[in-house]
Amino acid sequence: MTASEFFCEEDYGFKYFVGGKITHQWIIDCLEKNDDDFMKHRSDSKIKKIDGIDISDGKGFLSKVFKTSIYFDDEKKAPYYVIVKIPGEESMKECMKKQNADDTLNLELDKISVFHNKECYFYNNVASKINDLKYPKCYGSKDLIVGKQAGALIMKFLGSDSVTVPFYRSLNIYQTKSVLDEAYKLQEYSLLNQDVLTKINLEQPFYEDIMKSFSDLARKGIPTLKKYILKGMWSEIENDLDNMISNYIKIMKHVYIELPKSNDNVTVMTHGDMWTNNFMFKVDSDGNCSNNLSAVFDWQTVFKGTTGHDISRILATCAPIDVRREIEKDYLPVFYERLKDSLTKNGKEMKISFENFMNNYKLCFVDQSLMMTFAIGFALQEYNVQEESDYIWDVRKFNIGIRIYYNIVDAIKICKELRPDWLQNNQ
Q1: Which CATH number covers residue 93?
Q2: Given this model, what pLDDT does residue 377 score?
Q3: For the chain, what is the HEC assignment?
Q4: Number of folded domains that form the chain
Q5: Edge-to-edge strand order for the sheet containing 152-156?
Q6: pLDDT digit string, tens, across residues 30-64
Q7: pLDDT 10s digits, 137-164
Q8: Which domain holds residue 3?
Q9: Which of 2, 248, 249, 283 has its Cβ near the most Cβ atoms within 10 Å?
Q10: pTM (2 decimals)?
Q11: Is 227 in the same domain as 136?
Q12: Which of 200, 27, 204 is nearest to 124 (CA)?
């Protein structure tokens, strides 16, 4: 079908999408080729307009995310919705400016391209190979080639029947387990296909300058964090937390670089950013959020890590304290045994002991607990958080503070057990 047959306006296909330098023609070509639902919905209608609303706030850091509406010449026909994701510096700069940290983390476009192109690679070459993995359908992608080609992803719009859980609410135990099951699928696939995994180029995403930026952000996040934690509780963790932050770069290097390569360990595919804004759950018949996970998205930080990376991020950032501790005590042993049983049934050997499996989790949990010191600002920026006393937000902030306090308390215990040097001041 020619461009003039697709669009009401003959040259509309050559015009750029409102969100960036990709053409309307490219968007429609991708949907015509890869989205059967779009083809059925469009039928023989022509496209009148393609519009995009920026929904990046809290949902995009290195990219602009657009809820994209496609309108037809048949006005009785409802618009068709997809997500268009376009990488760039603007979203990150806006996000950092809101946190008064615009001088802390500045990634050039060539660094951003690594993240975007990795996500394209995952959707195109890896995702479909992992049995029953829940991820959004991808209808088209363009690598970001700096100075030559704008990057883009076109994905299924899930917002008609799925929602995210607000960061301030936390996931319940059933939702948490459903997300952990996606981490399990990644790990099971990796352990059953180590020969395939070695051929996939999925390097860890944090350059040394990013690690330095995270360390600076953790320092800058302390004044906000103190507002969420009661003074008496804060005094109990302040010195140890300060010492841990002084070792933050050392901790990140160990967790992301040294630990996956250590003896008696195994390498697994890791999402790298499993937190509430990257999950969507089906709504029930009343329109309320269910425990049924629709998809995990934002695969731009996927890398070859340890069994502890995704599990620790899910539990440190998404779960209330009692849920986290219950899962640590009762469910992680089950998680490990499931992996072991699957390997045995497939004639493979489980090459990591349960002790090392748990140590992976514990060491990664220290890193995730430190990340939470500055992540709350980013996680809450899409909400109208009241600075003054507020009937609802006072309790929400208290609950967030309690979660982070106990994360730090448990991280300190882990350091005393496994890495007491992380509690020594390194400044």
Answers
A1: 3.30.200.20
A2: 83
A3: CCHHHHECCCCHHHCECCCCCCEHHHHHHHHHHHCHHHHHHHCCCCEEEEEEEECCCCCCCCEEEEEEEEEECCCCCCCEEEEEEEECHHHHHHHHHHCCCCCCCCCCHHHHHHHHHHHHHHHHHHHHHCCCCCCCCEEEEECCECCCECCEEEEECCCCCEECCCCCCCCCHHHHHHHHHHHHHHHHHHHHCHHHHCCCCCCCCCCHHHHHHHHHHHHHHHHHHHHHCCHHHHHHHHHHHHHHHHCHHHHHHHHHHHHHHCCCCCCEEECCCCCHHHEEEEECCCCCEEEEEEEECCCCCCEEECCHHHHHHHHHHHCCHHHHHHHHHHHHHHHHHHHHHHHHHCCCCCCCCHHHHHHHHHHHHHHHHHHHHHHHHHHCCCCCCCCCCCCCHHHHHHHHHHHHHHHHHHHHHHHHHHCHHHHCCCC
A4: 2
A5: 47-54, 63-72, 80-87, 152-156, 138-142
A6: 999 999 999 999 999 999 999 999 998 655 568 99
A7: 999 999 999 999 999 999 999 999 999 9
A8: 1-157
A9: 248
A10: 0.94
A11: no
A12: 200
Task: Out of 105-109, 226-230, 329-333, pick the least confident.
Answer: 105-109
Instruction: Please check whether residues 142 and 174 belong to one and the same domain.
Output: no
